[in-house]
Specification:
92 residues, alpha+beta, Double Stranded RNA Binding Domain, five-stranded antiparallel β-sheet, 40% strand, globular
């Protein structure tokens, strides 16, 4: 991988482990924690098909976790909380 690819995020995206994905109230949640100085920052992608179009919302929180497993679980939990609070309004 070239230095420019590394600087600007090029290259293949890491696979999301099967256990880090979940369907909740017709929304698909993909845990996608980001590496951080103190471990992993909580992040997830939330998707839902509405009128034949897949809508996507990127969730990134200030919360961090020390392990990847903990960050995946927390990312899923925070995404569910957002779905419960906002529903389809998250796509606006």
């Amino acid at each position: 991988m070239s230095i420019l690819s590394r600087l600007f995020g090029g290259g293949a995206k890491p696979e999301v482990p099967e256990e880090a994905t979940e369907t909740y109230k017709d929304f698909r949640i993909f845990a996608a924690p980001q590496t951080d100085e103190s471990g992993y920052r909580v992040a997830a992608r939330i998707e839902k098909e509405i009128d034949g179009e897949v809508k996507v919302h990127q969730l990134v929180r200030a919360d961090t976790a020390r392990s990847l497993d903990e960050a995946n679980a927390l990312s899923i939990r925070k995404a569910k909380q957002m779905i419960d609070e906002q529903g389809e309004r998250i796509f606006r």
